[in-house]
Specification:
With about 625 residues, the chain is an alpha/beta fold. About 30% of the residues lie in helices and about 15% in strands.
């Protein structure tokens, strides 16, 4: 495949010439500068491979510099050049071909702003865009050291076009290019998921101070970045590896793309002889995901085991070595109590195990991947609501969710907040009270009832109302009361505060609540999973699924599809990096896997923030 400019393209002279003196160099022979450019210690260099007939004079002339500059960066060049020798040529301002490149058109590019922890490798994987392409479109970046806030051009036509294996190979090549000109005694290394400063010091027989002196560690150690290390006692391979410092496998070996993936699916398809429709939906969704895997050019041999929601049945399946056909990956079981036996088997055979639904709390293992998002990351995306810039009011009902209350108090972290006690009264009671006030000529803004929410909405404050009630009917009434107060105050031309209602994630499961009132109250919810029919990918999936199975997909269907797409495709590439540094969005819900501090399993960190806007649109974060 044709490579883009600035990486890995080594252009030799169009015709060989005899080694000779500078005066004898035939100036008529075309000389093309290398297009391989790297950053070393913040400076930009061409990486040039010396060809037959080239001299210091001819190379210096071709690159528009003097011979002394070449020698300054390549001490061995002072003793003469050798054929196939690799040297660094400093890039001179104005001499770079990209200095005169056409102005980029905004419509051709997305913009990506680098955030904490991101590397060029992770950005490339995020957009599935070639590293070559990103460097070519952003010639002034240092690929090994992206700074927070850097804005990158991402070519729209290339998004989604590059497989992980190509990205990995390109990053390996860039590292190898750096190593071709590394000073004696040093090597460049790609940081792996699970690496620590301590483990690198141990592997490379060095100290933390030495590593800090050779690299910018202001953002810590970022998986996927390229760092410089002493070569002494370094392992023979310093690229993407599959073992940690103790020799224990941290990540997994990817399956050969030419071979079929042997996948096992363990689901409680029946219980007491009755079909479980939820897991039938999951299975069908998984089959739909395998169709996408097939379109990517891969083959999967799937074996389904019915666990019957029975730990003894699970033990029987594992004891049979999965019917005598050892799998490459195991998806399930879906209950934590049944997964221990499977995990024990997987650790012995170095097989990844996916927990598609359970949030694992009592079991921990390097082989486990949890698709349910980590509870500790539930509120990562609502900092703007609880950063002290808004007035927060906790609305209590007759019955309240104590766990949700504690989560909100932890979010507030000592900030001041108000409270309001809601109590329902029948409209006829309120109406009678209103008539009595009118008869007595009483004019006041005092609420007519504890179910009247107008006092909360008066004024020009920016409010967040947190409804703590755990009763579906009461939640519906509180939302209706807030909407009614908003309408009443607006009709009387009173100043109404801007407000957002922050709700319990349990509301996603409420079946009888009036969803239209979510829009009126600008409700924001956190959800472990979201799939909305207005999304184009979801609509396309729904059409295919209905045509195939004659049924409406459920959330179990979508999770089954996601499991197949992420993990069956990942077994051919991403699994060798532990699925780290990449965000997956098979449909509408994102996934990003990482190891929680103090634990070994890999957990999805992505919760979905759902915003119901008052223009009757839904926005997803």
């Amino acid at each position: 495949m044709r490579r883009r400019a600035y990486l890995y393209i080594y252009l030799s002279l169009l015709a060989p010439v005899l080694i000779g003196t500078a005066d004898a160099y035939p100036t008529s022979v075309p000389f093309e500068r290398s297009r391989t450019i790297v950053y070393i210690n913040g400076a930009k260099f061409y990486i040039h491979t010396v060809q037959t007939g080239e001299t210091l004079y001819s190379i210096a002339k071709a690159y528009g510099i003097d011979e002394g500059q070449i020698i300054a960066h390549n001490r061995s060049a002072a003793d003469g050049l050798k054929q196939d020798q690799t040297i660094k040529i400093p890039v001179v301002a104005g001499a770079n071909p990209t200095d005169n490149e056409p102005k980029k058109r905004r419509k051709d590019y997305e913009f990506h702003t680098v955030t904490a922890g991101e590397t060029l490798y992770s950005v490339s994987r995020l957009y599935a865009v070639s590293i070559d392409t990103i460097i070519g479109d952003n010639p002034d970046i240092d690929p090994t050291q992206l700074s927070i806030g850097t804005r990158l051009y991402i070519r729209k036509s290339e998004i989604g076009q590059t497989r992980e294996t190509q990205v990995r190979n390109e990053w390996e090549e860039y590292k190898n290019t750096l190593n071709s000109v590394a000073p004696d005694g040093y090597t460049y290394y790609i940081v792996q998921a699970g690496d620590t400063i301590y483990s690198l010091c141990k592997r490379f027989s060095t100290t933390e101070d030495v590593i800090a002196s050779l690299n910018d560690m202001s953002e810590g150690l970022k998986s996927g970045t390229i760092i410089k290390l002493p070569r002494a006692a370094a392992p023979p391979e310093t690229g993407f590896s599959s073992a940690d410092t103790d020799g224990r496998t941290e990540n997994f070996k990817a399956v050969n793309a030419q071979s079929p993936l042997r996948a096992v699916l363990m689901l409680p398809m029946t219980k007491h002889g009755e079909t479980n429709n939820n897991y039938l939906d999951f299975y069908r969704g998984f089959l739909s995901g395998l169709e996408r895997v097939k379109k990517e050019g891969y083959s999967v041999e799937l074996t389904l085991f019915d666990t019957e929601h029975n730990p003894e049945k699970v033990s029987e399946i594992v004891g049979s070595d999965f019917g005598g056909s050892r799998p490459d990956i195991i998806i399930g079981p879906v209950y934590e109590a049944e997964i221990a036996k499977v995990t024990e088997y997987a650790e012995s055979n170095d097989i990844p195990v996916v927990s598609p639904l359970a949030s694992l709390s009592s079991i921990d293992s390097r082989v486990l991947f949890q698709m349910s998002p980590a509870p500790s990351r539930k509120y990562d995306k609502v900092g703007d609501l609880f950063d002290g810039s808004r007035e927060v009011t906790l609305i209590y009902g007759e019955s309240n969710d104590a766990a949700f209350e504690q989560e909100i108090l932890a979010l507030l972290n000592g900030q001041r907040f108000a409270t309001h006690k809601y109590a329902y009264e029948h409209p006829s009671v309120i109406e009678q009270r209103e008539k009595e006030r009118a008869r007595l000529g009483i004019k006041t803004d005092e609420p007519l009832s504890p179910s009247d929410m107008t006092p909360l909405l008066r004024g020009s404050k920016n409010n967040v109302f947190v409804i703590l009630s755990d009763n579906e009917t009461e939640v519906d009434r509180i939302l209706a009361a807030i909407a009614s107060a908003n309408i009443s105050l607006t009709a009387r031309e009173r100043t109404v505060s801007h407000f957002t209602v922050f709700g319990n994630s349990k509301w996603n499961r409420y079946a009888n609540i009036d969803r239209s009132i979510f829009f009126q109250n600008r409700v924001t919810l956190m959800s472990s999973y979201h799939s909305h029919g207005s999304d184009e990918r979801v609509k396309a999936f729904d059409r295919r699924y209905i045509a195939e199975f004659g049924a409406i997909p459920s959330l179990y269907t979508y999770r089954g599809y996601d499991a197949a797409v992420i993990f069956c495709l990942g077994m051919f590439s991403d699994i060798s990096n532990g699925l780290a540094d990449k965000r997956y969005t098979p449909l509408q819900t994102p996934y990003a896997f990482a190891r929680p501090e103090g634990r070994e399993l890999n957990v999805n960190n992505e919760w979905v923030r759902i915003n119901y806007n008052n223009d009757f649109t839904v926005s997803i974060e």
